[in-house]
From TrEMBL:
InterPro entries: KH_dom-like_a/b (IPR015946), OsmC/Ohr_fam (IPR003718), OsmC/Ohrsf (IPR036102)
Name of this protein: Putative redox protein
Length: 141
């Protein structure tokens, strides 16, 4: 399967990127790098893609398993290498589930299936970063 993304320069350090569904997003550098900070940063966007990929898997399984979850978020923390080209050397994903009647065993199974079997972005990240996952039930916000 082939995916095509078109990314057009809008001037200065800003780009508009269109994905296969036709939706667009803006990419821009921060002021410290000559941009205006009007868009998403490329490396942070990678982390959003990782969380989104796994999140979609988990939500799909929550539905299939008929689990009750009031809220769900993924907080992704990553550390860059010191030398150029800088890339993520370690990533920690915190899967935070909220609700009064959480089935912790099944929710852990849903996360494990995503992380170990279904999330292709996770597999890509494993090629260059040390990955770890933490599953939290009703953590403090």
């Amino acid at each position: 399967m082939k995916n095509t993304v078109t990314t057009k320069w809008l001037g200065n350090m800003k780009f508009e990127s269109t994905n296969p569904s036709g939706k667009t997003l803006t990419i821009d550098a921060g002021p410290e790098s000559g941009g205006e900070g009007d868009g998403l940063r490329p490396k942070a966007l990678m982390l959003s893609g990782l969380a989104g990929c796994s999140g979609l898997d988990v939500v799909h399984m929550i539905g299939k398993m008929r689990l009750e979850v009031a809220d769900f978020e993924i907080v992704t923390e990553a550390e860059l290498t010191d030398e150029n080209p800088k890339y993520y050397k370690s990533v920690v994903m915190h899967f935070n589930f909220y609700g009064d009647d959480l089935n912790e065993t099944k929710l852990k199974r849903a996360v494990d299936l995503s992380v170990e079997k279904y999330c292709g972005v996770m597999e890509m990240f494993r090629q260059f970063a040390e990955m770890s996952v933490q599953i939290n039930f009703n953590p403090e916000k």
